[in-house]
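Archive entry: two folds, one per protein. Generate the first.
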Amino acid sequence: MKRVIKIGGRAQGSTDLPGRLGSAWSASPGSFCVVHGGGDKISEIQRRAGLEPSFVDGRRITTRQDMELVRMVLSGLVNKELVSCLFAAGLPAVGISGEDAGTITAAPIDPAGFGRAGKPVAVRSNLIDNLLSAGYLPVISPVAVEEGASSEALNVNGDDAAAAIAIALSASELLFVADVTGVLDDSGKLITALGQAEAAELVERGVISHGMRAKLEAGFAALTGGVGRVRISTLEGLTDTTAGTLMTFAPSLIP
């Protein structure tokens, strides 16, 4: 039984993260890997360089100039800071990127509109499997190798990367750890189970947008690819299997 845990937003820098992950690892060592984001840090450094971040439906437009910065920030700064933090808390964390051993291969989404942003087309899970089998916790940056290119990198949305990895690992669960308790309805109430049709309706009405929309798209892609289940929750969901919003192909109970 393997889980893929995608961590982003403020949760990634939370002081509670090492303890929560540590508890989950102690309960089931070698059972999960972590995929991280780093969008806030990328945007911060872009602005320092006089560049303005741009997004479409929660996915970052990435120019060639941006790609150099993304590669440096995600696979260098963010990945190693997270690994260092987890290792200091006693976790056997090892940082890799989707480029290592060609773990994630991607294709450009739309070169004219999104530049160097890509979508996963293949995942080679050998490196992740080997690390888990050896007792290490893989911490993965979602920078990918471009399909058909020997040294070109693509910026893959962390949610998309996590979904593709979960499919390749035949994961029992994909957990998106977010800044909110899960998907919220119009009144701000947590939706505990969300069907695909209802999710599409909430997107259409503008209740769901930006980063949460990207999570839902990635989550339903994971379910389609055979992942056992998909949830969105806060850090609490790392150890509480009932926390958050459970995504399902069955109709939900939204009024």
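Generate the second and append.
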Amino acid sequence: MKPNPGGNEQLTALAGVLLVVFLAVEGATLLNLRSLLTVHAFVGMFLLPIVALKMASTGWRMTRYYLGSEEYVRRGPPALPSRVVVAPVVVASTIVLFGTGVYLLAVHETHGTAVGLHKAGFVVWLASTSIHVLTRLARMSGALRARYPGLGLRLGLVAATLVAGTAVAVATLPGADHLQDQVSAQVGFDQS
């Protein structure tokens, strides 16, 4: 199979668009997290496969570039600040943010060190991801409009990712509901 850096860039852009849309929904839950915790956890779990797809596609590009694949080397590396500062912080904070989110859901925790780490991870993630998105918008737009071979395969992969996200979110919904019950009980609601 011939390397297709344009197709990879397009897949990364497709995943990026999905992330922007669903992260906006996730961010909206922060306006009233106490009553929207179930939605927050549901959307967070839904995002896991999309985040994995985005990390895999960018990791693929990075690997192909550093292994010297001619097609990827010809496209060149991302700008140095993005490559050595922003990207590592985005990846690390994404792992912390989503990792602590999964942990909190798994252990039904609504306060403590892991919650503090989740919040701190969010602050770092928001700042670094905002820089990342703003510096990539023009290229992302171009990648989405371009015609590269294999579009059907990429769209199928994105669709499979959305199905996987739905499955993960639905499977973890009882845990999300349990967290919501805990938060409601802490403030005097839902005491049974």
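Annotation attached to the second fold: Residues 5-185 form one domain. The chain has a mean pLDDT of 91.
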